[in-house]
Specification:
The protein is α+β, with helices and mostly antiparallel strands. It is built from seven helices and 17 strands.
Length: about 425
């Protein structure tokens, strides 16, 4: 219990504030009663001072809790005030910190947005610059216009899909070196192919040694005795088909096989073969379909295994899927030309469209499929009439459009 620090004057003031007690009896009656009691029993002399002391103690006992509460209230008030001031200071400090942190975060967000916007603008500017420099840059196939002004070796590799059902032609270019045979560039580039990155099957390099005889136009392929192509019919079939397409149109008339310098190569179900087929360079007459890989916006252009007697029949196939091979239509179902001329023995294919058909930029992948299919049938260019638009991508439809050099171009560093 805390000792009171009040002065006598303060104590008097507090006692004076206590409620007054009024006795309504007659003063004479009070005096008479007291006198009678005194007469009956006179108290010892020490009693009165003791009673007075007791009264003082009693009053002190009564007043002390109130005074204590007052002091405690004052202390609490002072502490509360101090605490409030401290809390206010802390709140102000916290508020300042939060404001500073928010300002820093906002500045960081603003910087990030500026960096992102700058990066997007730079990417857009780079793309625009590339398109301005090469309007064919965003297309699927490789075109002659992209090779102007540079000496390049065009290399096309037939790469199996992940299920080993189809061969996807992938084209890349490397600088052409004077005196260097095509087969050397072809074999040296094999290890640089990114089949898995492109969503295809890891197939190259083919583990073999190649020797080209320019006089006889014969390419010899020598393999090791434990080569993997003798195990199962799929691997041997893929090898024969891939090499046949790879060598097509490269001035090679014959492909021979040896195993560690001995004639013949064991190809499983095919037995031991001394020679392999080479696809004719021209007029294969296949239709080009779409092969769409997950995650790739642009579909691959893939030739069908089947050949067609006319380009009209090829277009008919291109309007439907080949589900068992996961090849999808490369032409809309409503695309049905009113007339195609001529069918054969001419260099340019003219496609006259019906009035109901109007082409736009979304038709660009389909247009490339048409150009590649026209190339299969020996045409050098394609021209449209009544297309509903004058231009799609870099192609002016009213003019002759040259067919591509090869499909599915990829840049290899």
């Amino acid at each position: 219990m805390k000792k009171s620090q009040l002065s006598d004057k303060q104590l008097e003031e507090i006692l004076g504030q206590m409620p007054k007690i009024k006795d309504h009896r007659d003063p004479r009656d009070i005096y008479q009663n007291i006198a009678q009691r005194v007469e009956k029993r006179r108290m010892p002399a020490w009693v009165i001072p003791s009673a007075a002391m007791a009264a003082v103690l009693f009053l002190t006992f009564i007043l002390s809790p109130g005074l204590m509460d007052w002091n405690q209230s004052a202390d609490k008030s002072m502490n509360s005030k101090s605490s409030s001031e401290s809390n206010m200071a802390m709140d102000m400090d916290t508020s300042k910190k939060e404001s500073a942190a928010k300002k820093t975060t906002d500045q960081a967000d603003q910087n990030l947005r500026m960096d992102t916007t700058t990066e997007e603008k730079n990417t857009e500017n780079e793309f625009t610059a590339k398109v301005a420099e090469n309007p064919y840059a965003g297309l699927n196939a490789l075109y002659k216009e992209e090779l102007v002004g540079q000496e390049s070796e065009v290399l096309t590799y037939a790469i199996p899909d992940q299920n080993g059902q189809i061969l996807v032609p992938i084209t890349t270019t490397v600088p052409k070196e004077e005196g260097k045979p095509w087969i050397d560039s072809f074999t040296e580039t094999m290890p640089k192919l990114k089949e898995e990155e492109w969503g295809l099957s890891e197939f190259y390099p083919v583990d073999a040694t190649y020797k080209y005889n320019e006089t006889s136009k014969t390419l010899n392929m020598d393999v090791k005795a434990d080569h993997p192509y003798k195990d199962g019919s799929t691997s041997s079939t893929l090898l024969l088909d891939a090499m046949s397409r790879n060598l097509s149109g490269k001035g090679i008339d014959k492909l021979t096989f040896t195993t560690e310098q001995k004639p013949g190569m064991d190809l499983g179900n095919y037995g031991v073969l001394k020679e392999g087929p080479i696809t004719p360079a021209e007029n294969e007459m296949h239709a080009y379909m779409f092969y769409q890989q997950d995650g790739n916006k642009q579909p691959f252009l893939v030739p069908t295994k089947e050949q067609f007697d006319s380009i009209m029949l090829a277009f008919e196939q291109m309007r439907g899927d080949i589900e068992e091979l996961q090849l999808t239509a490369s032409l809309p179902k409503e695309f049905s030309p009113a007339k195609i001329e001529p069918e054969e023995n001419h260099t340019e294919l003219k496609i006259i469209l019906d009035n109901k058909i109007a082409l736009n930029n979304e038709f660009l992948p389909n247009l490339e499929a048409i150009l590649m299919t026209a190339k299969e049938f020996g045409y050098q260019s394609v021209k449209f009439e009544n297309a509903g638009t004058n231009q799609i991508g870099p192609f002016k439809l009213n003019d002759s459009i040259p067919v591509p050099v090869a499909p599915n171009k990829k840049v290899i560093e």
